[in-house]
Each structure stands twice: as C-alpha cells, then as structure tokens.
C-alpha cells in the first residue's frame, strides 16, 4: 500500500497547559535561545519533530526523534553556522481539547551556498517534561525568509520592470523564468519573482485572468474560508465579500492582483513546442498568440496548470449511443436552465457532484446564515427528479467544522503571511492530526448528521481523515455546504452500491438488473486515463513530506499546484530556490549536481540584479548570463515585460500537458514525469525514485 500519514513519525502530545499558567513568568525566550545555541539533546523530547524550509538542511525536510534532531542540527550547523538567535514572547497554543504547547518565535542568520546569508525565522514548541516542572522541546520549525540584501519574496515593493521595447518585430525572447498557467499558482509565483526582481513571463492560454474559475460550472465556489484564499502580499478580497467566494469574485481578485502588482502575463498564448535545451541548460518554447509565433528561451520552466481535471474525460459506459437523452461531463456543465421537466442523474458523490446538484435544484446561498443553503421547491426548479449514483462510501466534512478551525488562524486580526508561518511550517502529520482530532469530537456530537444520510441509502465514510484525502487522493470527498440536507430530506435520491452496466434508451441499467430512467446524465468522476496520470506530486516520503513538494522534478523544471493556501506558501520557496540558482549557488537538492554546484559553474549574477536595489538599471546588467560555457541569456533579457504588441501587463497558460507514467510498484516516491512535447535531453527529466 502507498505510504500514508499513519506510517510516518509524529503524534500530538497528550498535554493540556493549565489556563492558570503565567507564561510570562517563565523565561521561555531564554530557554529557546540557549537551546538553539547549545543543543545537547537532553532538552529535546523523544517524540520531537523538526521541520525545515531550506535554511538549515537546504531542503524541505522533517526529522524526528531527539537523537536524529541533535545529530543533524550539529552536522548542518558546521556549514550553515546558525547564529544571532533572538527569541520573542512566548504564547500558548491550544489546537485541540487534549493537546497544547508553548510556542516561542525566533529569528536568526545562517550561511547558505556560495557566501549567501539567509535571514531565517522559526518557532520552538515546549511541553512539560514531567513532575519536575521542567520543559522539553517537542517541535522545532525553521524557515528561510530571504537572502540578506537580495530582496524579500514577501515584499512586493519595488517591483522590477524590464525596460520596455518595441516588440512589433521581436520574435525571440530570453527570460530567466517562464511560467505556464496564470491561475492561482502561476500568479503567486509571478508575484514572488517580481518581488525578488527576477524577470519572468507568465503564459495563459485563455483570454482573461480567472477563467480557471469562471470557466467552470456556475455554482463553483471555494470550499475554504475567504481569509485562507489571499494571493501573496496582502488581502485579495474585501471584508464584505462572501465567506465562501464564488468564481466571479475569485476571478476579480485575480484580475486586480495582476494590475496592482504589474504581473507580466501574456493572455491568449499557447505553447506549441517545448524543448529541453541541454547546450544552454534551459528550455526553448514555441508560443503561438493568434497568428503570431514567438520563441521564448528560458532558464527555468515552471508548470502551474493544475491537475488537468477540467479536461472533460467521462468514464466510458457501454451502449452510450443508444441513450436518447443528454450526456455530459462536469467539465462541460454550466447550469440546468435548459433542463426543465427532465429527470436528472449525477454519476459521482464528491464535491463536483454535490455542487452540480446545487444547480439542478436551483439552490442559492443564504445571505443571513453561515454556510447554509436554501433549496427552492422541486417544481420551481424545473426538474421532475434527481438521483445521485454513489459508487462507494463518501467522506463528508461539514463546512462549519472546517471554518471553525480555519478561522482561528486565518482572520482579519492576523496578516496572512503571519498565519502561514504558524500553520504552514508545522509538520504535515501534526496539522493532519489536529484536524482529525477536532473532527472526531464533532462527529461524535453530531452523529445524527450522518445517520440521516445513511437512512436514505447514502453511504458515509466516517473514518476518513480530511488531510489524507486532500494530500494523498486529491479529491473524492465533499465539504458539505448544504447539499447533504437535501439528500437526507429525500429531495435528492440516492442509488448506491450498484455499478452501472450500460446505457439504455431511457436511462441507465445497473449490474443488479435495475433500470433508472433519465433525460440528463452528468458524470462528475474522471476516466481511467486521467486517474492514472495523477501520481507525480501525490504521496508521502518516509519523513511525511509530499513527494516533490516545492522541489524541482528535473533540471530547471518545476511543478506548482494546489489550492490558494498551497499556492501562496509553496511559491515563495520555489522562487527562493530559483533565485539561488540564478546567483550560481543552487541548493544541494535542486538536481543541479553535487554540493550545490551547477554544471559549468555559471558565475553569480550581480547583487544589484537579484535584490530590491532601486539603482538597478540596464547599465548595471551584464552583457551575457553565462551558462555552461555559453552566453545563454542576457540579463535583463531583451524582451518586453508586456505581451507582444500589447500595451499593458497581461496574463497566459498553455496547452502543454504533463503525462505521468504510473510505476508498477505502488509505493514509489515519484513517478517519471514526461512532457507531452519534444524533450531534447534525457537528463532534463526527473528519474524515478526507488522505494
């Protein structure tokens, strides 16, 4: 079986810090600074975890156990020389009813490759050591903030703009970074690179920003609270916007972000060919924009096009040609306005299926109640009946439960970047266990919620853990924003546990022989071809990190996917790794070679080109960015930071697709990633990792 969270180290401490404890009376900052300067191991709990984001290990890495943490800290410290530790005021963290600890934030400096100095931060978490009244380190978190003097990925001002040029006859462009896909991940990374003064081009296939949201079915909305879904730097949405943002408002937020932060995006641009350029250690990409053709030479290629599930690929049900009604995949579904009087069947029982039923029932969000929905009368909706076909048990996670935990950290009183440092630096196993613990308590209290569903035949997976389905499965669950009540009340019928055999003229026939009449069949699951291609960035390594997360999948090839919280957080560390490589000092685990040495040892770019130096001008730029003995890039490159023949900043992803070849062994850490384009050079593709 593939590795899951239960197979990796880490557990919540069974400790409850007394509410009467005067945290200020205990010198926790002094304890933290002493431990960081003189880590002996005796002050570390045996179950301790340490998660690092680049600053000490040079990787995204989680270590467990007192001995391993002590030894690895000592080993890395010989090279990194962490110093200038400054701890601040301690605070009590109470994430669950049974677990609590003391958090002590701190900052420090560390040496990185090639003489770079990292400004770093962290949090040390203490738990009581026993009856003696002492305290031990249970969790340590460290992260790279930025390279000293080289700009900051969280500070968008000033934003570097390459001098504009006449582009009417310019068909070839050179740029350090090419991003394909202007959704939440592409926009987040573009913003980070702009803050670090690294020129880039962001390609988007569609003609408008936000189409990845507005192009879906009309009722699509976010299933996490508004404050979790900001793009980098500041709040993207207004306080008055709905708590669960609909697609139109999400898209408007994206568009405003492009204007505010001068995102350099090319809209309506498609990638026709992509070649790994071994001679220059980069990529040659052919782009079509309308009738115009362009060539982009990029050092780094970042694919931010999502999982590809928006491509209609319905499961193949035999005898489809005999069906007299309408068959469509959720990728083609917008609304049910033309289906008045018809019988509807939805194949699937996860989020898209439930959201589709919102449309079929003409359910609208209630303006005066949190996360509740109001269903119009079935006759008013125009459909005579609706049936959901459920293949297996479905995990149901009520939105109220999710919002309760999310709002403790993501709210109007805490800036998003501060909330991220608290929530996203935790080992993934700990974050998962916190949510699971709280959901178990809620499920015990609200048994009737699920009992009511099962009484009408809807099978609920009551043992499911939300983060397992998010990180390991990537779907198949439902965040309940109201449809479950419609099912329990009988407004939506359920057909469960009986596989579809084939279409009939009037509907569907099941393996049991039962038939179901239908005028409309909407498939919300994906076919086997898409399902088999979803292994590249799923699964855990032995430390509990997501395989390939925030790391390159090949030389100068990156994948960035996920919801807005992941896009916002992960983009900053990809940007920092790209910045380090462009400076000639790549991180050791960046697939560029051993000991952080890039092939050909390209010289460092001038400091004035890598930071937020307002004196940066064309005169300060070197004539060539030397790569492996060739003048591969000019820097800044002779290309406009606006799209060809257009007057302002715009945006664009491409039709480039990623095909993931599944490995025969189910527990491989990563499958081979193959680009559906011409790839010149096998060494540009990430090899399979062995179990």
TrEMBL record:
MF terms in GO: flavin adenine dinucleotide binding; monooxygenase activity
Organism: Lachnellula suecica
Compositional bias per record (Basic and acidic residues), positions renumbered to this chain: 613-622
Name the UniProt record assigns to this protein: Putative indole-3-pyruvate monooxygenase
Coiled-coil blocks: none
UniProt entry tagged with the keyword Oxidoreductase: yes
Region (Disordered): 591-630
Pfam families: Pyr_redox_3 (PF13738)
UniProt key word Transmembrane: no
Keyword field: Monooxygenase, Oxidoreductase
